[in-house]
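I hope you will forgive my troubling you with a question about protein structure. The matter concerns a single protein, recorded as an amino acid sequence and a row of backbone structure tokens. Please examine both parts with care and let me know of anything in them that strikes you as inconsistent. Thank you for your consideration; the sequence and its tokens are set out here:
***
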Amino acid sequence: MANYLAQFQTIKNSCDHLIIAVEDVSDLWPIVKARFEERLPIKRACLNNKTRNPVYVEQLPAEFILTTDSRLRSRFPQEQSVFWFREPYATVVLVTCEDLDEFKTILKPRLKLIVQNDEREWFIVFVSKAHPSNDQATKLAKKIYAKLEVDFSSKKRERCCKLDIHGSEPSFWEDLDSKIVESIRNTLDRRIQFYEDEIRKFSEQRLMPVWNFCNFFILKESLAFMFEMAHLHEDSLREYDELDICYLETVNTTATKHREFGGVDHGDDQAALLKPGYKPLSQIVQDDSFREFEFRQYLFACQTKLLFKLNRSVEVASRGYSFVISFSKTLALHENTLSFCMREVWVITACLALINATISHYKDGIVAPDVEKEFYRLQGDLYSLSRIKFMRLAYLIGYGAHIERSPVNSAALSMLPWPKPAVWPLVPPDASSEVLAKEKMVFQANPRVKHFGIQRKPLPLEPSVLLREANRRRASLSAGNMFEMLDGRPGFTDGSGLDSSLRVSPLKGNVSSMSRTNSSPGNFETTVDRPMRLSEIQVADEHALHQTISDPDLWKSLSSLEGFEQKYLELTKGAADNYHRSWWKRHGVVLDGEIAAVCYKNGNYDLAAKSYEKVCALYAGEGWQDLLAEVLPNLAECQKILNDQAGYLSSCVRLLSLDKGLFLTKERQAFQSEVVRLAHSEMKHPVPLDVSSLITFSGNPGPPLELCDGDPGTLSVTVWSGFPDDITLDSLNLTLVTTSSVDEGVKAIKSSSTIILNPGRNNIILDLPPQKPGSYVLGVLTGQIGHLMFRSHSFSKGGPADSDDFMSYEKPTRPILKVFKPRALVDLAAAVSSALLMNEPQWIGLIVKPVNYSLKGAVLHVDTGPGLKIEESYGIEMERYTKVMQSAGDNGHAHDAGEGCSSVAEEFMQLTLTDGKVQLPDWASNINSVLWLPVRAVDDRLARGSSSVTPQTQSIVDGMRTIALKLEFGITHNQTFERTVAVHFTDPFHVSTRVADRCKDGTLLLQVILHSQVKATLTIYDAWLDLQGGFVHIGQGNGRPTSSFFPLVISPSSRAGILFGIRLGNLTTGGEADPDSILNIRYGISGDRTVGAHTLVAVENSESVGDKQNFLFRSALVLQRPVLDPCLAVGFLPLPSGGLRVGQLINMKWRIERLKDFEENADSCDNAEVLYEINANPENWMIAGRKRGHVSLSEKQGSRIIISIICVPLVAGYVRPPQLGLPNIDEANLSCNPAGPHLICVLPPALSSSFCIPA
């Protein structure tokens, strides 16, 4: 079966569609050919895949071929089983007949003979030539077609269809398509089953000696190709995947005998991943299998072709990258049999071929965004891989000095091993001029000197020294003398690069050295070849690469330095652009740095600076300071060349901000000198410079500074400087940000002098102006160095650091300042809550209580309210106040000092009141103290007593007086505290009276009760009563009590009684009589000012202790004549029994009767007329008649009179009736029996018939 490989390849190249055989029985094909071929390709064909699931093929290519065609007649029977996929998938039998006898005798037997082959899928197309106008011919054609259906169709399957040439039958073409598709589907199912059975048989023999992979491959690929012709690409791809796995298992089997790998022909260096027909299969067959190098590429090319047909370019890129990586490892295993650098060249061509193919087949917008990003990521990987291999080839031929020794290039090339040929290439005999040119190029290649004089060991671009590796792999030298290889130059270090190893003098002659072979360590050869110099190695490598590389474009890129730079830039840009469009944007940014190096070399500093900025931003964001230290000086150099002063300053600051171990001290000093130089120069466009990474700050350890609203202070701030030397700040500002409101709480603190920052930790004291209440954290540090404005947003941890260089960037920061709201910085309160004496000088105690705040230099403003004045003739006293608190930790206002507390005068001072202000002494600034003010409460009203009939109605507000206090304190008297203190003043007594007894002779015993209203002891020395008219004293008539108990002592809150004997007298008719009785009391007081009412100021200040000063208290008493013998009686007459209604007229009557004769009561009654008055609520009653008038009443005892009035009730319910009053008659002379009810019931008005509507 393996002999059919060439024929199999030919069949595959010539047959790419399905074949439909046409059996033209009646020579009809020339007539219907055009119309049949118009139906191709077949639309929406439903086929079965390998798992027998239906699959719709949008366009199924096919071709109609006559059975008499040579393409079907030239096949041998033994080929059919192998190449069954090219056999017809359906047979269309074209017949026509116009005679029924001819059908029975000739056509029918012939058709039976044609369709007797069960392996073919066939159906009959009957072509009717009858014209529609010929009814007889039309009927005969229908009859023959009916016979044809009966003979060749069945219930299970319709195998006949009719085509009318002269008519239009669209249903025929649909029927034709369905029958063709059905035949193809059945044939395809049968052939799939056949191939599966054959493949299963071969698979069972894999471990047997008779196993032949070529036979298995032909069957497997025949099945895959058949799927591909049927456009079942998924099934075809699956077959190739299984074939690839089976081949790898066959190759990796240990029992397999050694086979040739391949890849030794010219042109094999160019990858054939997309060229299935690059080499015929017959050329790569070896025994019972294929050469691995060509065959694996062939399988991948077949898979790629199917993936492109499925529009899966992303999968091509993914599979291609994985295949290149794995196949590159396979090439490494056979590198000693391949040409020099065959592996690197193949990888480059494979990556570039995959990139071009996938880009040309990829369509934007037809895949999901994530898939699109993955596609560009794979493109970037392919570009990056080819870029690395290309740099390796360039390094081998002497372009290493022109490759940027960046971290990414060093990481890639230093881990990439050298080529491992069996023998390293030798220098051609006529290449002496080329060797000299290489050495000249090495000497002319000046290494790039970094800005600021930064000295760095160049990063290596080689895994080991190329000089040693090449000489070690020479045929006659396994290990050379390193000293001889370097022409006796000491100091060479492995991996140091070109600077130390490439400068070999071409004039040096051969130096004898001792070499050692691999066979025996102890055997030394007698003839030893001279080790090659590096320039000779590069020339040898270039000649060997020229023999290996067959791609003219690739060789052109390596034949000159300009071509190398152009190709290198192309590959780098391709990788960077694709990485930027994927989600691996960081890879793209890193490669931008390589593009920037080329731009810098070519003098395009603007593009170089932009690319370097991207790279620096990436490294800084990731915290890769070692990498940042490599790139940032390059950015600074570009910015300096472009005269970008702002960017150059920022780069210098960022260089200073890196770890100190990355640069030498002199290098960091050079950075600082550049910053200072630019800061003091005239900048065209000065911009604020952010030094957050270089200068950080924090508050000092410990609790935050606490101030009160309006208080200034000093704030200590710790500033860390990352500069290597001292630096002078012309100004320094620090903002404070409140934690509650950013908009309202930003305050700036300015330094008043120049500040010099030392390297490391610095403590700075700033004057703090008054701030608003709130909690503040450090905001932004700004300042000026020369003409340069700088700012820093970084915060340092305020805890103790191990060294002065300690810097931290922890957030959130803790509060540095707390400004309290206007709180209880001080408290002013009255020392005594009990009442003081009215109209007498008294001490008012004011407790001054500082609350964790100093009152040094405080001034108290005193302003008394109405009814209160300060007795300026007496001095003001202040003493220390000690109070027993009710609970520990109580910081509230002062409590009453009268009960349960003690006060001790520890310090005492006389103060002076000047313009209403008192200067508080310094000793009272931090302690609780009491300020005593001499005041007098003035009240010109006469005190009035009460009785059981008229109880006491005095309000506490009547004796209330206020003192407005304003305390100014603080360092600059910026703090004020205002409070109005209320003080209660009262009379010493409250007087109440009652009649204790009435004697038979008309004498009344009047009891006067004295209630003490102060917390002091009162002593009564004398008391007398001045009576009003109508009352007289008994006895001597001097108004003294009936019995004398004076002096009478009354304790605080106690009562005492005094009896007076009085009797009724005649009312005076002429002159002005006193309306009230006056009680006069001469008393004395004994009390303590810390408790309440106390000894008067005059008494306390009296020089004579034995003098007694008595005071007079007067109170008005209201005495009423008792109702014992009234003159008149007033009665309310009953209302009608029918009830009252709203709107009804009512006659209300009152009766007045004289109880005594006129002679006995001449003083109290009128002689003939009585004044009356009716009082009624106008909302409830309407009065008809006079409301006020005089009526005549006889002066004789028993005389009567009736007063009537007509009224109308206005509202229903319980209302108060009108009331009768006698204004000129004293209430003591009236007797009500009763004068009227309190409430009466008024009914609603009756219904009115005028508003009723008859039914």
Q: What stands out?
A: The radius of gyration is 63 Å.
